[in-house]
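agent> Task received from the user: take the single chain below, predict its 3D structure, and emit structure tokens. No templates, no multimer pairing.
agent> Plan: (1) validate residues, (2) run structure prediction, (3) serialize to tokens, (4) report one or two observations.
agent> Step 1 OK, no nonstandard residues flagged.
tool_call: predict_structure(input=
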Amino acid sequence: MADKDTIEIVLNGIGASPGICIGKAYLVDKEGVDVVEKYFIDKKNLKKEIKRFKSAVKSAKDEVQAIIKGTHEELRQHAYILETHMVLLKDKMLYGKTIKTIEKEQVNAEWALKKVVSTLKSMFQNITDPYLGERASDIVHVSDIIMRNLVGAEAVNISEIRKRVILVAHDLSPAETTQIQLEKIMGFVTDRGGKASHTGIIARTLELPAVLGLEYATGIIKNDDLIIVDGNAGIVIVNPTEKSLVEFEEHKIRYEEYRAAVARGSHLAAETTDGFRLHVMGNIELPEEVVSVIDYGGDGIGLYRTEFQYLNRSDFPKEGELFDKYRDVVEVMAPKPVTIRTLDINGDKAISPNSECDEINPALGLRAIRYCLQNPDVFRTQLRAILRAAAFGNVRLLIPMISSCDEIFETKRILNEAADSLDKEGIAFNRDIKIGIMIEIPSAVIMADVMAQAVDFFSIGTNDLIQYSLAIDRGNNKVASLFNPLHPAIIRSVKHVADVARDKGIKVAMCGEMASDPINMPILLGIGIDELSMNPQSIPAVKSIIRSMKLKDARLFIKDVLKKSSSTEIVQLVRDTYGEILPDKLYYEG
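)
tool_result: status=success, residues=590
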């Protein structure tokens, strides 16, 4: 509670993991490796400098390996993050380029490493997918460990914390977060990061409240300050008043009661009170996340992003490597469906960082299906792996960033070539899989009636659809507040796609962030979406609210929604009509 000499401060960030916690702040200090000085190395001492860098990398490998061995059971499924860091420590992009920079520019190892990391960071941050863009943080975390070993700074050891605290840090690396002991750490607060960062992913796995991306929290919060962390609203309150403490303690109790209630029903079907069944699926990036989809009651995988295997490497993955990962997911989920999305990345940047082709606007550039069709050998390898995995379960193929029918026809041609080659080689595969396209470009919305005749299903990717329809850069803080899934134009676009799908006799799914927010459920149900896919942790709450609704009412409700001319009016209409069953009503208003 704030005393007479302190003032309550409210900080706004990104709610990366839901929940509320109240407790003392514990600042995670890092010894000074931020300031790196440049100095030149005499030619005769270059070998010695390279040896010093290699020694620091070796120490970093030993450190990460020790953390992997000591990872707690709750986080065992996330050990892959640290395994990725082990790979990065050996990678030519980081390791090899740093050595070359030392040799070529005759500079100290710290400066060479800083320069290489800066280049790699900018490369990843140009990627439009939020999850993939956050992988720039992997490179930073790995380089931090090497840098710390170069300058002789002490490592942060979160496992040694002996009291119940809320961690406050500029950023938390996977190595640090995997040391967390649930009985000691109540929540996270960081200056950097977002929902797709590893800190956010791990916070959700541990079900710890987290507010990230606060920018200046470490400059405002002091050790042992009393703070409130609200991961639902994305706010942190420093030195709360007695009134705030009472208010948020009540919020906390209601939220925990609500979470327990929806968790108990997570394995029940998402069936409305008048008998309509909506399939609620999980989005995953890595095979290890299948466990979360099953645990949270998912009806299958609605979106398996396949980009991760193409990152942090200087060559393309082989067919067998891709097949092994896909098969693992398909077998575990069988007979439930697994929707595998083909490579959605501006591949030259992600895979061949030496490329001189720098795109001014990568969101509108050579990515996803455009990249795959210009690189048919890379595409064919992935399609062969997917067809082979389909022999072991229920696989659906999803093509991203479709803007014309020609792209669908060309994709089918290459898919047929892949199937024919497998058949000739006598390799087991299944050609009888459903083919769908992502509806995320306005041209695909407009042409949906024609495209529906060429595919088996639609999957609406609302993240990009909103970005392209409203001309809003999601990564630009100056306009990010305008990114609104309940903009009337977005609702009308989604309804048009759903109406076309129904008329043409195909299913329509939604796999963007819009699908995971309970406030959108009355609208999506009324529009006629057949399937929703989201981060696994959101599944129980979405299923719960669907079970509280009637399809007949939602269909009537959407008529009123379509009469509104602003998102503010639409939000108010949803709250006025369905406020009693919305989660925030349950744990915020009482």
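agent> Step 4: summary for the user.
The first helix runs from residue 46 to 69.
agent> Done.
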